[in-house]
Amino acid sequence: MSTFCFRFTPVFKLLSMVVGSLLFAGSVEAAVFDITDYGAKANDDNDDTKAVLSALAACREAGGGTVFVPAGTFIISRQKAESPILALCSNLTLRGEGTASILKFDPKVNQSNFWRMLGSSKGDVRNITICDLHLDGSNTYPGYVKGKTPEQCHGIFFHTVKGVSENITIKNCLIENFCGDCIGFSVGSRHITIRDVTLRNFIRQGIQLAGREEDGNYLVTGCQDLEHTITLGGSTIHVEHAEGTKNIQIIANRCRRSILAGGVNGLIIRDNVVNGRIEGNGNRNILVQGNLIRGSNAPRSLIQFGYARNLIIRDNILIHAPANKTKGEKPKTKRVGIYVWGASRYNPEPSHDVMIRDNFVQSGDITVSLNGVHGGEVRGNRTDYANKTGQALLLKRTENITTDSERKP
Asked: What is the pLDDT of residues 172-218, one digit of tens each?
């Protein structure tokens, strides 16, 4: 018995030391850097940029921590370098008290370009959280005017050619009034989460995603855009310049504008409510499921994909608005529910392996249309009972497509 105790007592002591050190480490809070301790003053007309930069620098020198923005409005302006104005470091939480904590561009933003409020510095940045903040871009343009409206004034902008921006989370923020993008992630971005973010009055895009083949693993969920008071130029969620970016999930968002996505390998668009359309070109391994899409009265497709490979579209509800047409007039362009195409004069490659099942299309002229598709299945799609003139399926330049005859309820 004594031998048994002798052998295991040192091990027990070592485990006790490890557990104790972990408990002690967990009890020590990360350093907090309040921007008002560095000279920022809320609700005046003075520029607070240098004070916020000082708080960020102190956090960087400490190896990380929390930079805190208390309630109030703090003015941010461009500081010589184009991007970003407030460069974020690794192991950082930038946190406010909710929508009362406002970082706002100086109104001078409307007379120049390339203002990016928050983003990555040169080199690698990892483990960043931006939360409980209100970002205001101070845009005064009522809409896009070519040659006049600044297009590169963004709220959050991560683009790192010679580095990585990794493990970035944006949550519980209101981001509005940017003449560029409210949020943009591009080259070098990996493992990005955008959750429960509210957008309003963006002239370019609400959320813009891009990247290379080595980039990706993006999740956008629980986001919404509020009613806008300007004429928008872009989409609520937009993926472009994606050169094979991997694994983008767009799930359970409420979009007053469209969702557009192209160039993605591993794309999920699921359970969104969209006023507009869902569209993309050049994607591989795509699932579009469970979305509710309300289209305008324009004669166009509500779901449209081109040059797709391994595409599943199922269990979506698509509703066309009533058409604007003169009595007796036959519109030249059809109102299509789901349209998949390929093999055009720009690219001879057809779309491959397409499955379209169990979708419901209301008030469309054509439920499903395939043009330039090789290999696929179209089954179980429905249209509304009152739509007696609609065409169930239109096939052009297709091969190896398995279909059934649509039965109206």
From this structure: 999 999 999 999 999 999 999 999 999 999 999 999 999 999 999 99
User: CA 210: distance to chain centroid?
Assistant: 10
Confidence tier at 62 by pLDDT (50, 70, 90): very high
> Do residues 308 and 268 both lie within one domain?
no
Contact criterion met (CB below 8 Å) for 368 and 395: no
Q: Which two tokens stand for residue 281?
A: 């070109």
For residue 167, give the CATH number of its domain. 2.160.20.10
Residue-range definition of the domain harbouring residue 74? 31-275
Residue 21, by phi and psi: left (phi above 0), alpha (psi -120 to 50) or beta? alpha
**CA 393/CA 336 separation, integer angstroms:** 10
Same domain? For 200 and 265 the reply is yes
Is omega for the bond preceding 84 within 30 degrees of 0, making it cis?
yes
Could you tell me the maximum CA-CA distance found in the chain, to the nearest angstrom? 101
In the block, which residue shows the tokens 């003053």?
Answer: 41
